Amino acid sequence: MDPGEAAILESSPRSFSRLFALLPQLPAALLGRMNVIDHVRDMAAAGLHSNVRLLSSLLLTMSNNNPELFSPSQKYQLLVYHADSLFHDKEYRNAVSKYTMALQQKKALSKTSKVRPSTGNSASTPQSQINMMLANLYKKAGQERPSVTSYKEVLRQCPLALDAILGLLSLSVKGAEVASMTMNVIQTVPNLDWLSVWIKAYAFVHTGDNSRAINTICSLEKKSLLRDNVDLLGSLADLYFRAGDNKNSVLKFEQAQMLDPYLIKGKTLGALFASSFVGMDVYGYLLAREGRLEDVENLGCRLFNISDQHAEPWVVSGCHSFYSKRYSRALYLGAKAIQLNSNSVQALLLKGAALRNMGRVQEAIIHFREAIRLAPCRLDCYEGLIECYLASNSIREAMVMANNVYKTLGANAQTLTLLATVCLEDPVTQEKAKTLLDKALTQRPDYIKAVVKKAELLSREQKYEDGIALLRNALANQSDCVLHRILGDFLVAVNEYQEAMDQYSIALSLDPNDQKSLEGMQKMEKEESPTDATQEEDVDDMEGSGEEGDLEGSDSEAAQWADQEQWFGMQ
Q1: Distance CA 21, CA 277 (A)
Q2: Which pTM value belongs to this model?
Q3: pLDDT, tens digit (0-9, with 9 covering 90-100), for 176-185
Q4: What CATH number is given to the structural domain containing 102?
């Protein structure tokens, strides 16, 4: 939080209202006499750092795709403004990289070329900063109307304040109304024809229309000067993740990481909305879910080298521990991440999951509820809470929550599957679960969670041939550890042992830590060689006797990890 923002928070409500009432109404900038660099400069002077970062990133991408758009001195200024905004966000390694690029750009300038000094409308500086802080604070307090008013005032002074645009869209202001507030600047400043499409895309984002948002952003990213923009790629990773398309989400994260090796946290929706969009911590989580623990470990080390003062590297390392079944260590790392950023949704989910798996369900529930408060559009927050309810046999609470999610987020494959998951827990609602899963698979035949739950239902009914057909169809265009393992189970049930062994082998090649696939393979080997299997079981028991205590975890072990911060990157 900025010092000015903190000072406003500490003031009394009466003085806070008085400050807002007494703000002078200054005239808008003379757009016809300004270019886009002038707008960036004025926002930087006004302290609108998140807006500067977002706009300068887009403009630099445009410059890379068409070097003739901006003069060398203008590109130099953009690099400096972008680096300044990174420095403000404490992303020092990334800032150094951009400052270095700026120095290289300056050396390339002709000796007679001079960077134009700042001549912007400095009179608007105090009001634009203050209004942005007011809008943020009003939004945090749940006061939507004054927040909207303040954001609009920011746009009146700085019509290219993209973070303020996102603020309005997040408060349900219609995209057409927001676009009308930028029409003048689009018509008078060159090379801003993409802005109206950009606003349209994020209007879809904030109304939950993920499919249209993805299509619109893809059109921006592929067909315009904004190709290979890290912020747009981050948006696509976010949207694919929300839609449950983890494969494409990982691909977009990988693209963004290659373009910006210092990327550590998402900036797609601006600093204000840090709790509602994804960063590299979610990338680590997705890799861990795929069983790519070596990649997760490498990612964690890379992020620690960038900064150990952000939550993301701690969350990534925590995901590695969690999926290695070292829950006490995951708990400590999640707590450390929350200490650095109390609004880190992924840290709350990590800590909640660790607590749940350690049997501390009530504590886990508290963390999942807080994650829902911060990110009410993220389905995985609700999934964690519902899993806690089911773990504690609170089926009624789970059913109420699943129905609320279904009504709030709409009838899509994800919400249908979540509701079906709860219905499967009650024998009375088995038929309803079947109907819901059929609807989900009609919408998305490749949705893995729906396939898994439908296979579970078919297994209960001993319809193994139907299950095999379902799984083969799902695996036709994708490869997933869980699907291969379940197919192996079904093949065993119909005495197709050789192919079952092949499926278990494929599952383990995708995730060597998948215990159920290993157990399925070992069970088949025991049936083939009872004597050898008995000896292997004895060895496994001896090796597992010490490991079980480690998986359980304890407060004393968490304290031990707290004493070893140097191992995690704290020097």
Answers
A1: 33
A2: 0.76
A3: 999 999 998 8
A4: 1.25.40.10
